[in-house]
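Last lecture ended with a question: if I hand you only a sequence, what can you say about the shape of the protein? Today we answer it with a concrete record. The protein is Arrestin. Below, first the input exactly as provided, then the predicted structure, then a couple of comments.
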Amino acid sequence: MPHRVANFLRTSTHTLETQLAAGFKRQKSPPQTPRHSRSASPSYASSINEEAEESGVMTPERHESSSEGHHHHRLSLNGLGQLIRGTKDLHIHQHSNQAATLNLKVESPPLVLYGDASTSTGALFSGSMHMELKEDVPIESFTGTLRIHVTQKRPFTAHCHDCAHQYTELQSWSFLKAPLVLTKGSHYFPFSFLLGGHLPATMDGPLVNIAYEFHAEATPAQGHGPSIKFDKNIEVKRSQPEAEVPHHSIRVFPPIDVKSSAHYPQVIHPLGVNTLSLRLDGIAKSNPTCGTVEFWKLKKLSWKLEEKSKVIAPACEKHAPKDETTSDDASPAKKGLERTDSRIIGEQTYFKGWKSNYSSADDATVEMEFDWGLSKKLESDLAKSKKHRRYVCDTKCADGTEVTHQLEIEMVVSQEYAPAKKLDMVTQTGVGRIMRMHFNVILTEPSGLGISWDNEAPPIYSMVPASPPAYCGSEGSTDDLDLSNIETLLGGSSPTSPILRSPPTSYAEASGSV
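The predicted structure:
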């Protein structure tokens, strides 16, 4: 069996060398015939000779043909390498000699949608396209497009481009109404667009990626080079207002009747530090029958910030299920699949750090304050993965995309009892309880010093009066004026005629009196 494998491999090598040598001989057409004729079908002996030739040991009869075949093979590779290098040089030459370049200059502040999707007035996106020309170039068309690119990371059908990518065009601009020859130098083409408040913010989560793509393309006239393209992603954020006072939540845990009271900020920021104040009441109860006092002592407290994502992965036209229902009562087939995911973006565990008071059964309390938010360690771990961002702000879109955050607090308490007159003689009962609380929080970007575009808009033309305001002076003559202190008011100088002159009531009267 091994000699058959060796024979097969050597036969394949012999066939390749035979074809190369035969092709080279046909091109050169040597006048003399070879001394030894070669059989068309390979043999074990010929394969041994080929192995000797490949290893560098050549016989006198095979030396000429082997060198010729090897030389022919090397020439073909050199020609291919020259072709590849020539193509690269041509590409670099065309890129370096490009006569026009495009760049985007954004003039508006960072795009921030203030408020939720139902109350936000949107964000104003304005700027100008900068075209730098090294020479006069005739431009046939110059257009720009702003669109939303949604990438499904768990699409309806795997390995389908249309199921994984959805595009929504928001606005398009035509910077040139007709073909025009642009002269050498810089040219600016302004544009503006109002992003609706219902649009989603830029996000990169475990299920979906939403990006705003700006694309511009300038097409020169035929014979003046290829089209000039420019692409850039525009970041859009959403900021929701904060409450002036912390949110207050009260929870009672039956059957032990322990009451928890928590004060926490309901709107948090990714880089901020948040403080939660917790108080437990009703953790002690007296038992007059046995003459003891029962305590619920806190042994462990942990919190975690959970992010939940939900999207509807739509199906393309090719993979969309056919609606075969004919009755009115039957529901049509769904055009997408619901995808859900959850991950922990912050967590911490405490075994101490709270203040407890068990001096009496009526005033027994436990108080604690701790900071919570996005964990630094989890941020670094998610940043190293480079799969998606370490967090996604709260989002709710019309297409079914929704991202929410929830703070979960878990407390472990154990039951103990002590005599009513000797509270320091504590005995454990071995009974424990796990108490959990869930708080809905909103993770959003900070607003900073920015305000909504409609609050910083300049006055419109209807607010500007037609003429300057009229002077509201007395209509009496100048003889009735008291000019006794005029020199004192003017610093000792005599009154001049313009002061005694009545003010003009219009621009025409003022121009006529000059």
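Comments.
1. Helices lie at 2-28, 44-54, 60-96, 161-164, 376-385, 486-489, 497-500, 507-512.
2. The chain has a mean pLDDT of 77.
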